[in-house]
Design brief:
Elements (H helix, E strand, L loop, with lengths): L2 E4 L9 H9 L6 H6 L9 E8 L2 E7 L8 H5 L6 E2 L5 E2 L12 H5 L6 E4 L23 E4 L11 H5 L5 E4 L1 H32 L1
């Protein structure tokens, strides 16, 4: 199964992926409509920044790993969290509805589950009101997490990332690409070292 992998060296912290994720999980599926929805749509991934030195900040898009075994599935009291035939961990369409107990939030080792108004609880009443906002009725809170955008061939965050920092690929494929990049860097380093040694000998 394809997963989301990250190349942190390419991330600029622009958070375009977060915006694209929120829009994809909105009712309107477009930026303008999403901005008018109440409550606003919630992103399923998060760009975090870590200070690695006084002069460097590492930006990292954090995404659900769809673990196997998944701690969130084991912790889910109503058995809403489950694994689909496509190997996606989700709490939508499970044995029972999510009750927003927060057990999965506590058990996720990566902090990739949030509690927010449910998408399926949003119902536009009368379309755009005089206030220019979409009203939400019957909304309820539930655990929200990455579902790998089942209606798309490529997740919205991957399609929107301007630098290619987020990759949607098989694990073996991503590992192979990483080895190719590492081999190229090492070969360049070797060439520079040999050229430096030759220059030092000539001097």
């Amino acid at each position: 199964m394809k997963r989301l992998f990250v190349r942190p060296e390419l991330c600029t912290g622009c958070k375009t992926c977060e915006l694209a994720c929120a829009v994809e999980h909105s009712q309107s599926k477009n930026l303008l409509g999403a901005m008018l929805e109440l409550p606003p749509p919630h992103s399923r991934l998060y760009v975090e920044a870590a200070i690695t030195s006084p002069f460097e900040i590492l930006k990292m898009p954090m995404t659900c790993r769809h673990c196997d075994p998944a701690p969130c599935i084991a912790a889910c009291i109503p058995q809403a969290m489950h694994r689909t035939p496509d190997d996606v961990v989700t709490n939508v369409g499970g044995k029972h509805e999510c009750i927003a107990c927060g057990m999965c939030v506590m058990m996720c080792p990566f902090g990739m589950i949030a509690r927010a108004p449910a998408v399926d609880g949003l119902k536009a009443t009368g379309g755009l009101k005089a206030t220019g906002s979409l009203k939400a009725t019957g909304s309820r809170v539930m655990a929200l997490k990455c579902d790998l955008c089942p209606d798309r061939d490529v997740p919205a965050c991957v399609a929107a990332c301007p630098t290619g920092a987020i990759v949607f690929a098989e694990g073996d494929q991503f590992a192979h690409q990483s080895r190719v990049r590492a081999s190229f860097v090492l070969s360049q380093a070797r060439a520079v070292r040999e050229a430096t040694m030759v220059q030092a000998q000539e001097e």
